[in-house]
Amino acid sequence: MIKITSVVASLFIGASVMASSPKFHQGRLIVKLKEGSQVPSSNLIKSSMHLFKNTYILRTNNITQLEKELKQSESISSVNKDFYANREELPESINPHKVAPGFNKGTGPFNDPKVSKLWGFKPSRNKGMNVFAAYENYDSSSSKKIIVAVVDTGVDYNHEDLKDVMWTNPGEIAGNGIDDDGNGYIDDIHGINTLVRDSEGNATMDIMDGHSHGTHVSGTIGAKQNNGMGIAGVASNVEIMGIRTVPNSSDETDVDVAEAFIYAAKNGARVINCSFGKSHNEGGSLVKEVIDYIGSEYGVLVVAAAGNSSQDIDKRLTYPASFESENLLVVASNSKWGMSFFSNFGVKSVDVVAPGSSIYSTVPGNRYSSMSGTSMASPNTAGVAAEILSRNPDLSAIQLKNIIMETVSKSRSFSSKVASGGLIDLSAAVDQ
């Protein structure tokens, strides 16, 4: 049996369990103001953060009393708690090991020694996404670098296969304790950490992966191609922005996710990979509204995992996958033999299928390992999205999503499972 080593695997528990005792952050509220209004003055508010439009995050030491107070205010349109996904231990990667540098033979356009382990790069007839063909005789000199945000457990930005593709904030001076670029974050060199906050509630900058999930996802998207070591990422001209928002126990909150998405968009990310989810949406529509906002205002496509409960999420909703948004692309998982047994599906909620079983990629400490889950199918798709954009940078998020869906390799086995009825195909997409 395949071991599911994925953030998504640990999050999709029964809705009845979540409904019985939903846990929320005890120190903050999500507040939406009425048009033209300001955050009301209150001794219970420690600080406020403007998130987007008329939505604010308020910090408090007395959430119950402040909630009552705000609901009586004429300036407030809505007040919601900040709910957690649910705490679960994440599985570890399978037998992580180092790879000796060297040059691989017989794997098309790549010289990375372990690229032959990337079965998802093979043609669609082999259940792959046709990556090798997309790079045959391709000159990348005219392509544009695309920033992809990995909102996850962090990224090992010192990894041998990732250090050269990490996004570096051009307006920030490392380690000087100053917000040099005035974006509200101090020393955010490669991204931010929404899990560790300062005394004012501001996200900090240490994005180092304490687990392995985020580093694995990052390598799938953009591990340095043709550097004679490790593997190759799907995308050839990419920068990885690391945002640590998913704890090792997978218990992320709506506010942390929303802030991560906003930060990514404002700092130039065109694609966001979202390999997490939860089975009960307790309060409001914050994350959906953020996805809609960054899509329309910044042209960002959010690529999300469908989840690993082997269920139809058209009937048993899961989030963010089940949100209806033109700027959201939801991904199911396949193996070398067809749909992965663990993968969620849904002809309304799930858009495409991508390789997600036994995916080989980077893990912390210059090591490599295999993991399985829709968490792995999502970054394969995010990599495809980034490569398409690098060759066609003027595409909108909606146009990008449509190209990916319209160029899938159709299959009868997928026609009743996902909206597009097929498996993503990079070669067909870039030839569109």
Task: Characterize this entry briefly.
By secondary structure, the protein is α/β, with parallel strands linked by helices. It is 23% helix and 23% strand. It is globular and about 65 Å long.
CATH fold group of the largest domain: Rossmann fold
Could you give the order of the helices and strands? HHEEEHEEHEEEHEHEHEEEEEEHHEHEH
Task: Kindly report the oligomeric state of this protein.
Answer: single chain
Give the terminus-to-terminus CA distance.
38 Å
* Biggest pleated-sheet summary: 9 strands, mixed
Describe this protein with a few key phrases:
432 residues, alpha/beta, Alpha-Beta Plaits, Rossmann fold, 2 domains, 11 helices, 18 strands, 23% strand, globular, disordered N terminus
Description:
The structure is a single chain. With 432 residues, the protein is an alpha/beta fold. It folds into 2 domains: 24-83, Alpha-Beta Plaits, CATH 3.30.70; 95-430, 3-Layer(aba) Sandwich (Rossmann fold), CATH 3.40.50. 23% of the residues lie in helices and 23% in strands. The chain contains 11 helices and 18 strands. It has helices at 7-11, 15-20, 63-71, 131-135, 213-222, 254-266, 286-298, 374-391, 397-406, 412-415, 426-430, and strands at residues 24-33, 45-52, 55-60, 76-83, 94-97, 146-152, 191-197, 203-204, 238-244, 269-274, 301-305, 328-335, 338-339, 352-355, 359-363, 367-371, 409-410, 422-423. Strands 6, 7, 8, 9, 10, 11, 12, 13 and 14 form a 9-stranded mixed sheet that branches. A 4-stranded antiparallel sheet has the order 2-3-1-4, sandwiched between helices. Strands 5-16-15 form a 3-stranded antiparallel sheet, covered by helices on one side. A hairpin with a 2-residue loop joins β2 (45-52) and β3. α5 packs parallel to α8 and α6 runs parallel beside α7 (286-298). The longest helix is centred in the C-terminal third of the chain and has 18 residues, at 374-391. The chain is globular, with a radius of gyration of 21 Å. Mean pLDDT is 91; it is low at 1-19.
